[in-house]
Amino acid sequence: GLNASVSTEVEFGVCTVTCGIGIREVLLTSGCPTTEAKCIVRVEECRGPVDCGWGIPISEGLACVKMPCIYIPPENRFKYVWKMLIPNKTAHILPNDSAIMEACRDTHSVTFQCETQENGNIIASVKYTVYPTTEMQTKKSRRIEKGQSRITKTDAILVFCLVTGIIVTVGVTFAMIFIILHWAVVKSIWESKSGQDNQDKKLANRSSPCNME
């Protein structure tokens, strides 16, 4: 719907990813068909650095985990190569060629890597560490202990605040009751104190140098 004879300027939006492959908007900054300052012309692919570092599994249980490769739809457009990384040895290529792989925990930690390829070129790479069941149970126990510790500290603070509030409230209540029941005595004490203050002021005025003169 745009007039091809109109001079146009294009601006690119932010890529949806910082590594691998993502998408971004292509914006028109002049020549839009409406009064808008910018309008979307199209959405295109964008690329970032190939190495995406360490990923987060999409599902993680005590027995198995599910790990995704990096891709954009359609999923079958790319080729996925899963590898098991072994320290000081050549990586072992796994038969799994899908975008998501499920791996069950072993007796030791295992590192996996997925390479997303297109036309023989690697466009994204991500690694995962699958920890053994015993370590996951230990981590879970530590998280539970930390959570209970935080709850205990919070409960202690709440109890302290509650007790302090009750003590202050009771003290103020008793003070008000005492004043109400002994209002006459309190009033007489207050009046006598006010009278004494007035007498002291008068004596002070009489004994000042100006009055002496």
TrEMBL record:
GO terms for biological process: acrosome assembly. GO terms for cellular component: acrosomal membrane. Keywords: Membrane, Transmembrane, Transmembrane helix. The chain crosses the membrane at residues 156-185. It comes from the Eukaryota. PANTHER family: SPERM ACROSOME MEMBRANE-ASSOCIATED PROTEIN 1. This is SACA1 protein. It comes from Nyctiprogne leucopyga. The gene is Spaca1.
